[in-house]
Model the fold of this input.
Amino acid sequence: MKKNRGEEVMIFYFTGTGNSLYVAKNIEKNPISIPQIIKQTEQIYKADKIGIVAPIYGHEVPEMVKQFIRTATFQTDYFFIILTFGNRHGGAVELTNNFCKECGLNVDYLNLIQMVDNWLPSFDMDEQRKIDKHVNENLFKIISDIQYEKRSIQPVTDSDRQAHQQYLEIRSKMPADIFQHLYTVNDDCIQCSICTKVCPAGCISLKNDKVIYDMNNCQTCMACIHNCPKKAIRLNIPEKNPMARYRNNEVKLKEIIEANNQWKPSVKF
Ligand SMILES: Cc1cc2nc3c(=O)[nH]c(=O)nc-3n(C[C@H](O)[C@H](O)[C@H](O)COP(=O)(O)O)c2cc1C
Ligand code: SF4
Ligand code: SF4
Done:
C-alpha cells in the first residue's frame, strides 16, 4: 500500500491457508503474525494506522484473534479489520464489530473480501480454485479505502443475520466435542513434521514416528490438513474431495511455517 509520508502502518494477521496473509502483505509488506505474539505479556501497539486481517470461521473471527483483541491495546487514530471469507459471511462484520465494542475497541473501517473457501466438508478445492472471486480488484478498493482513511462498517442485511442463526441452530444439534476429534492421519504419512510446524496453536507433535494431536487449543484453521504434502490427514466428517488441498497461490509453505510455527527452542510450553 502506498503510504503517506512518514506514516507508520501496523498489520496483524491470522492465517491457515494463506488467504489472510496474502491480503495482509498487500496492505503492509511486513505484517505481524498473531500466533507469534499472542503469548507476549505486554500487548501495547502504537502506529498511525493499525489493522487486523483474519479469516471467518462460522461467521466469526478465530478464537486466537478474539483473545488478541481482548488483551491488546491499540494506540492509533485509525483502526481497521479486514475479514476473509469463502462463501457466506453471515453478518460477520456486525458480529466482529459487536465483539470489538464489548472489548472497548472502536473500529473505524471494517470490510470483507471473498476468496477461496477452504472449508473441506462443503467445498472441493479444485473447483474453488477455478472460481473468479475478483480478489485483486476488491483488494485494490480496500487498500485505497485504508489509504484515504475511509471510515465505514460494511452493512449487514437481515438475511445475513438469518444465515448466522441457521448456522447456530445446526451447530447446537452437533455433538459438543465434534472439533475435538476432527482429524485422522493415515499410513501415507512420511513423518515430515510439516503439520507440526504449520499449526498456529502448537497442537501437533511427532512421537515415535506418529503424529499426535492435542486439540485443546485447536483453532480449526485447517493449516495441518491443507499443507500435508502426502494428503495423509483426513477429516472424520465427510469431505467433498479428500484428494484436493489448498494453499493461496501467492503464499509459500515457508511463509505459513514462519507465521504459525510454535515449536522453537525459545518457546516453552
Ligand atoms: C473452520 C472453518 C470455518 C469456516 N467458516 C466460514 C464461514 O462461516 N463462511 C465463509 O464464507 N467461509 C468460511 N470459511 C472459509 C474461510 O473463512 C476462508 O477460506 C478464508 O479466506 C481462509 O483464510 P486463510 O487462508 O487465511 O486461512 C471457514 C473455514 C474454516 C476452516
Ligand atoms: S504433514 Fe502429513 S506427511 Fe508430514 S508428518 Fe504431518 S501427516 Fe505426516
Ligand atoms: S490442529 Fe490443525 S486445525 Fe487445529 S489449530 Fe492446529 S493446524 Fe489448525
